[in-house]
Amino acid sequence: MLTGWINAKQQTILYTEKKLSQIEKKHGTKVSDRFIKWKQFVAENQDKSESEKLKLTNDFFNRQLIWIEDKKLWKKKDYWATPMETLIKRAGDCEDFTIIKYFTLISLGVPVSHLKLTYVKALKYNQAHMVLTYSETKRSVPLVLDNINKKILPANKRKDLKPVYSFNGEGMWLQKQKQLGKKVGSSSRIRLWVDLNKRMRKELI
Question: Which domains, from first to last, does the chain contain?
């Protein structure tokens, strides 16, 4: 399973003290303070309900991060940043907002099976977009965590989004508006996802 961490224990560690020291030395205390706040956020919200965790996480990163396209931020057409890279830059595009929310919610104890990184077409802007969706059960209408519309809404209330496909560490699905959709294989088929997970593992060494 590609969860992004080497083992379950590290899901709540987020980063080592050695890594924090390296970040502070290279990027300064303003950046290292973001990592400390991130760890505090995860520690303080472990006992919240899943619905509270969704709202808190969505609000936390929508306030913290600035939207910048990959060409300006990374000088690449398409780049999926690790949560560490996103916090260092304090910026990212829709994929980066979605990725950091996804891994943070896993650290908060939300099951991977409830979360999907979901590609949609943003009809208003006529472009591809990524959001994080949450389904309590396979039959639940997914809730949408987004950096454009910052209010968490059921997918069937987001008429501005047309779902395409979704994935997580357990698989990949052709997405339907009101249900999970048809599983079409492993998320290891997605090159950018595999590359992201490899870089995350290296960050924890």
Answer: 15-203 (3.10.620.30)
CB under 8 A, 24+ apart: contacts of 140-145: 141/178, 141/179, 142/116, 142/118, 142/180, 143/54, 144/118, 145/54, 145/57, 145/58, 145/98, 145/101
The separation between CA 168 and the C-alpha centre of its own chain, rounded to angstroms, equals 10
Per-residue pLDDT of 23-51, as tens digits, reads 999 999 999 999 999 999 999 999 999 99
For residue 127, give Cα distances in angstroms to 7, 82, 144, 164, 200: 36, 23, 17, 12, 28
Report residue 111 as tokens.
């099951």
Separation of alpha carbons 94 and 105, rounded Å: 17
Tell me the whole-structure pTM to 2 decimals. Answer: 0.89
- Of 23, 42, 160, give the one whose Cα is nearest residue 101: 42
